[in-house]
Amino acid sequence: MSFYFAQLLTGLANASSLFLIASGLSIIFGVTRVVNFAHGSLYMLGAYLSYTLITTLDLGILGFWGSVVAAAAIVAVIGGAIEVLVLRRIYRSPELFQLVATFGVVLIVQDVALAIWGPADMLGPRAPGLSRAVRIFGEPIPQYDLALIVIGPLVLGLILLLFNRTRWGILVRAATEDRAMVGALGVNQRFLFTSAFMVGSFLAGLGGALQVPRESVSLLMDMSIIGEAFVVVVIGGMGSVTGAFAAAIIISVANAFGVLVFPQISMVLPFLVMAVVLVVRPYGLFGTAASAHGGATVPEAPLRPLSKVGIVVATALFAFLLAAPAQDDTFILVLLTDVLIAMLFAASLHFLMGIGGMVSFGHAAYFGLGAYAAAIAVRDLGLPMLPAMVFGPVMAALGALVFGWFCVRLSGVYLAMLTLAAAQILWGVTFQWQWLTGGDDGILGIWPARWASGNATFYYLALAICGGALVLIRQLAHSPFGFVLRGGRDSPVRAEAIGIDLRAHQWLGFTIAGAFAGVAGVVFVFSKGSVFPETLAIGHSIDGLIMVLLGGVQALAGPLVGAAAFVLIEDWVTRLEYWRFIFGAIILVIVLVAPDGIAGGLGRLWRLVRPARAAA
Amino acid sequence: MLEVEALNTFYGRAHILRDVALTVGGNEVVALLGRNGAGKSTTMKSIMGLARPRSGRVVFDGADIAGAPPFRICRQGLGYVPEDRRVFAALTVEENLEVGRRPPREDAPQFPIDALYQLFPNLAERRRQAAGRLSGGEQQMLTIARTLMGNPRLLLLDEPSEGIAPRIVEELAGVIAGLKRQGLAVLLSEQNLHFARLVSDRAVIIEKGEVRFAGPFATLEANPEIAQAYLVV
């Protein structure tokens, strides 16, 4: 009995730190509608800063708590700078741009932290005065855990006071409901947004700073916390601080007991809970329908069949790809194969979000599913390459069919979050299911059949598969099925009012997009000869989003341009020291200069140069 | 006090307002009349900065405010009451009023919160209730009161009588007359000709984004074919 009570207390202590970071994330989303991936970075900075302050000042109890608050305050200032320099410029862009921009910030912060604090993990000192354990029912409980259990509700109380008793808090709540109206009543939204971002950043920094006595400070803190923080925000209802508190307790306590029954579950459990909650309550425990949708949506230009110029460009490109093996340069062929795979992956994601209006934060799941299924088919079923290449996408489609059934019940940010949860579940399973997937070691030695093992042959095979799939996707976008998806994207209500079963179409669209991602996955596994859990990880899903957004969402050619640019930039940049910083900076520059992507930006430039033609 | 000249507003590529021009004098109530989709709300939003006019001038007290952000326009002394009420549903009545509060200004009539509760006794009774739980008429009163908390000099009232019980519409007429007595100017958009005539000094009729008539109600009454052509009578 006492053991379970101790376990409960551990869960509650974890809940406090999780609540601090999630509440900040929720406040920022509520006011600015930005899904802030950089929130984990702010948390990490809070930990590093407080580590430095605590160890250099070394001033006892007061010094410890002073350092914690000071670190959080510095993080608040950094958050304010991020808002003013980056986010403020793109509030009118589609919400995904903001997401990608914050991911650029993540990369930059990672390298900045690496440069300042070095790669080694750092174990901070215990909190002075709270360094021992007390016995409760005979079980030792760290005093610091008890302090955290008090701090969580204390901070919740302070936030609620701030929200209900101050003019600032009332304005923030009003802006969470209807930003434009608040502006029309004379409130300067810029000030409101910046201050809300700073308060959210302060909370993230505080959460990080308070972790120093509990875990070692490392460069992995940012991405390890952000997934769980998202889950908490979504379960609680985006924008609701009370919801975040309840959700943090549910997740942490469930985890504390879940690991007793099934030790491997901690990676997957939060996402399972989220999936269940969202199916029952689509807007989270304390959320409302209004909170599902983000910033401004720009009416999209209709898709048009390829113009004459487009046909010429496409033909030239195809001719170039056909002629590439003549160079007989293995490096170029491998790079071009990577480009082809990335193009198909990005195009399948674009089909889902650009055509279907369903933004996925977890599209890599189906890429990885296809790759793993093909690898397992070769290794365990002894299938030859071609049947395995069919088996992979079929399994990816099946996976998308299952997860899609849940996802299409939601929309907007909640749908995106559920796709993220689905991907995390699959990633966790791949990671843990050692005997089937090899876990962290992956599956090795999956090479093409002998007839296709020549560099040029495999390249042509990849070109045929990826090129064929790309043409198919294009045909689908221009088919009646594509019209239905786009109609549903622009106005779900009107689409259903004319007798379309939108959900069924979206479900099918989700499955098709998953299948095409699976095709990209099987080409990938045979070109690399191996597959690892990273192919399903959040990072790879975000790569896909970056490709689509680099190219521009509003054009079918966008993802192709974006994927090519992404692979080429990545190939060049990763050879440099501090490549994350450079890559993050490139992302930020593109997002700030061309909020409609490379293809969109070039299109705008074209119209500027040839205004007469555009008018005609 | 307010002069709108050659205002053109687009939604995407659709040309909504075509050279709209109108004036509102100090302490004058002007009715902006027109059918559904004629461009009344877009005119209001363009004046307030919520829709960005592509060309034209909006001169308020001698300063061109066209294209300025809404919060600046509000601080100049323009109060905007939206057509679909847009109360902050999760906030209490009192908190809704707080969002609208601006420091008092010398050149505008003052509306301290107690005076507003006197003007709208229903709101006083429900000051601690969530605004989302008020009736449609009460929500309309709340949006007007919320805007008056900003001590505006000119009120943009977008279709206040829409979807409201007839008894409340009468009450609304009394409120508008009272605001005029206190020195406010009002631009009132309406489909309801009878209600508009009851409270307004002049009429401006808009159709397909163009002004078709501007003048006293007497002219409208003398020439019923104008109203028949452009309004639902």
Describe the structure.
The complex is a heterodimer of chains A (616) and B (233). The radius of gyration of chain A is 25 Å and the shape is globular. In chain A, strand 1 and strand 2 (139-142) form a beta hairpin. Chain A has a two-stranded antiparallel sheet. In chain A, strands 3-4 form a two-stranded antiparallel ribbon. Chain A has helices at residues 2-32, 39-57, 60-85, 95-117, 143-165, 167-177, 179-184, 189-211, 221-236, 241-261, 269-280, 308-323, 330-355, 364-380, 385-407, 412-432, 434-437, 455-477, 480-490, 492-497, 502-528, 538-551, 558-573, 579-593, 597-609, 611-615; strands at residues 133-136, 139-142, 443-444, 530-531. Chain A is built from 26 helices and four strands. Chain B has 233 residues and is α/β, with parallel strands linked by helices. Chain B has one domain: Rossmann fold, CATH 3.40.50. Helix content of chain B is 36%, strand content 27%. Chain B is built from ten helices and ten strands. Chain B has a six-stranded mixed beta sheet with strand order 6-7-8-3-9-10, sandwiched between helices. In chain B, strands 2-1-4-5 form a four-stranded antiparallel beta sheet. Chain A binds chain B through residues 167, 170-171, 173-174, 177-178, 180-189, 288, 299, and chain B through 12, 48-50, 69-71, 74-75, 80, 82, 86, 88-91, 95-96, 98-102, 146-147, 150.
Question: Summarize this, please?
Answer:
By secondary structure, chain A is mainly α.
The pLDDT mean of chain A sits at 87
* Share in β-strands of chain A: under 5%
Q: From the structure provided, what is the oligomeric state, counting identical versus distinct chains? A: heterodimer
Instruction: Tally the helices of chain B.
Output: 10
Task: Name the CATH superfamily assignment of chain B.
Answer: P-loop containing nucleotide triphosphate hydrolases
CATH hierarchy, class of chain B? Alpha Beta
Could you state the order of secondary-structure elements of chain B as H and E? EEEHEEHEHHHHEHEHEEHH
CATH topology of chain B: Rossmann fold
